[in-house]
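Table S7 (text form). Paired inputs.
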Amino acid sequence: MTITGKYEVDKNFTTVYSNNRIYTIPRNARHNWGSIAVGELSATGHPITQEFYDNCVAECSREGTFELAD
């Protein structure tokens, strides 16, 4: 699956914001990615709101395309 969107990178993960979904791609295990959509609950039980998503996208200066393995 190919996704395109704004993204940020830290020491362990690449986080991509695309089509109201947040994709988390581990640096050293690219097949073990996960995603969560606006309206769903995070792993810690916090709701992902449209406002939260929009704020995250606004903070990103990079945009790219990523190929995710199933």
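Next pair, protein 2 of 2.
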Amino acid sequence: MITVVGTGTGAPLSPDARIALGRAGLVVGARRHIAAARLPDAIERIVLGPLAPALDAVEAYLEKDDKQQRGVVVLASGDPGFFGIVRALAERFGPERLDVRPAVSSVAAAFARVGLPWDDAVVVSAHGRDLRAAVNVCRAHPKVAVLTGPGAGPAELGSALSAGRADRVLVVATALGYPGHERIVRCTPSEAAARDWGRAVNVVLCLAEGRALTPVRTVAGVVAPPALWALDEDEFEHRDSMITKFEVRALALARLGPRLGEHVWDIGAGSGSLSVECARFGAAVTAVEKTRDGVERVRANAAAHGVDVRVVHGAAPTVLSDLDDPDAVFVGGGGRELPAIVTACARRARRAVVVAVAALDRVPAAREALVGAGFDCGGVLLQSSRLAPLPGDVTRLAAANPVFLLWGVRPAARSEGVDR
């Protein structure tokens, strides 16, 4: 049997944890956990570094110790089943061989310190993972807890968020539960980026403080995907019907695949209808719009739908160099600059580029830009006719302007799994 003991946030070990340690022949844990346990010299111990060798050593010990019935105790921080070592142990040895005794997680403790509930928070781990997903979740959601790690701490997170996220506050929780050492620091992303936080950071909360308290929830964590998408045009403020029609948006969204932890560009955003729809799926969205009234319209539509969209005033492809790389891009405008815009987007997109084109003459150049960037390219001409009423309680078909929709998918993206 492997007993997994959560040490809590500085709290002493429980009596039953002490009993388990007294019966153990092998104890595994971080150096600080083993030191705090004050083990007898006779007990074998493994200080955790790389996980695979430690698991190999545990397996060898269990095989050797099977007849003696002396178990293994693994010491871990907080709740070891919450982004912790329980997953690796269950995969290697099977859940039936684990006796897990959790303590308060660092996330729960951090939210308790600031007096906020966290059933509506999104929790994302940057420990041993690419920081991009955590950054994009923080951009898209008003209450996020980030589990940090080497190279992915408060400074790196703050640096990534300092551009275009002026409404976010970071709460850095360090040495939780250790009297005299615990610190709860509130700061802006820019202030976080300028500090050396040391090695005792437990978790970073990223909050849009005006929206940190939400109505009572039924389902914890991430909000479920929207029940409806490809919303009607009248759900958005727009000028002279200059808006991506819902038929086009429906297919564009299917090809973009916006999701939590990813970053989407909407180039030539216009009303921002596509930006809003992507944000409703949980993606971080940057809308690029060259007109000042268009910028305000995108912001108004995002606010009306309760989502975060970063709006950049400027013309593509010039302004794109200052933006973080996207996972997917929608190009809904461009004019004569369209080939250059598509080329610039295709160079930067990690996964997909979708282009809506009304002018037949521009389709070959846009397709050539996608193929030239190494994308697998497809496309369709959308011609739709909507039911429209006529006098006398009869109905006609009203044809909409045809639109070419092209899409390019990076070949490697087809086979990559998505860890969300």
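The first helix runs from residue 15 to 23.
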